[in-house]
Automatic annotation (TrEMBL):
<keyword id="KW-0560">Oxidoreductase</keyword>
<dbReference type="InterPro" id="IPR006401">
    <property type="entry name" value="Rib_reduct_arc"/>
</dbReference>
<comment type="pathway">
    <text>Cofactor biosynthesis; riboflavin biosynthesis.</text>
</comment>
<dbReference type="InterPro" id="IPR050765">
    <property type="entry name" value="Riboflavin_Biosynth_HTPR"/>
</dbReference>
<dbReference type="GO" id="GO:0050661">
    <property type="term" value="F:NADP binding"/>
</dbReference>
<keyword id="KW-0521">NADP</keyword>
<dbReference type="GO" id="GO:0009231">
    <property type="term" value="P:riboflavin biosynthetic process"/>
</dbReference>
<protein>
    <recommendedName>
        <fullName>2,5-diamino-6-(ribosylamino)-4(3H)-pyrimidinone 5'-phosphate reductase</fullName>
        <ecNumber>1.1.1.302</ecNumber>
    </recommendedName>
</protein>
<keyword id="KW-0686">Riboflavin biosynthesis</keyword>
<comment type="subunit">
    <text>Homodimer.</text>
</comment>
<feature type="domain" description="Bacterial bifunctional deaminase-reductase C-terminal">
    <location>
        <begin position="3"/>
        <end position="204"/>
    </location>
</feature>
<dbReference type="GO" id="GO:0008703">
    <property type="term" value="F:5-amino-6-(5-phosphoribosylamino)uracil reductase activity"/>
</dbReference>
<dbReference type="InterPro" id="IPR011549">
    <property type="entry name" value="RibD_C"/>
</dbReference>
<dbReference type="InterPro" id="IPR002734">
    <property type="entry name" value="RibDG_C"/>
</dbReference>
<dbReference type="Pfam" id="PF01872">
    <property type="entry name" value="RibD_C"/>
</dbReference>
<comment type="similarity">
    <text>Belongs to the HTP reductase family.</text>
</comment>
<dbReference type="InterPro" id="IPR024072">
    <property type="entry name" value="DHFR-like_dom_sf"/>
</dbReference>
Amino acid sequence: MRPYIIIFSTITIDGKLASVDHFSELSCPYDKERQHILRSEVDAILVGGNTVRLDNPSLTSRRSPVRKDPVRVVISKDLNLNPSFKIFQTPPPTIVYSENPNPLIKKEVEEKGVKVRVINPLTMKSLTEDLYALGVRRLMVEGGGKTIWSLIREDCFDEIRVTISPRIFGSGVSLAQGEGFPGKISPLLKLKAVEECQCGQEVHLIYVR
């Protein structure tokens, strides 16, 4: 068993979530609120280690009218993360999944209350099944592109919610950054909802399996 998994991202018109110089501030204030409301409705939020290294996010629901912070989950196969990052310094709880964690960093973050779960080999299937065993029933995934690709490749997702920002990067990190599917066997989703953002410049799309 695994949780119900919702992939959430804001991307450019050409499908990029970050530019070649790692710029990723694509959301308007309304989209930020939408993101934080969804965070308050799930049990946990998942990001890759590279997202933590580049953005140093807090991953809270502080912009949601109802403040309910999810458990934060990070994938870092060798635990190459600075213990001073925000997710290790502030509530709510953080879980890091790793294959071969750096023992010194592991000790330091565990002293801060972080749970380090070692699974080898670490796959999205094994990770999400472990989260389910820990009580996570609804999981939100925010990136980055490689993490999202791994979930899609392993068929570990139920919804994709994307906001289209009126930018074009031309290159950079794609929503699903991986080797790709042959066209005829690529996942075909169903459009569930289309919402025009209150800013008047963005569109929010919800796709389901």
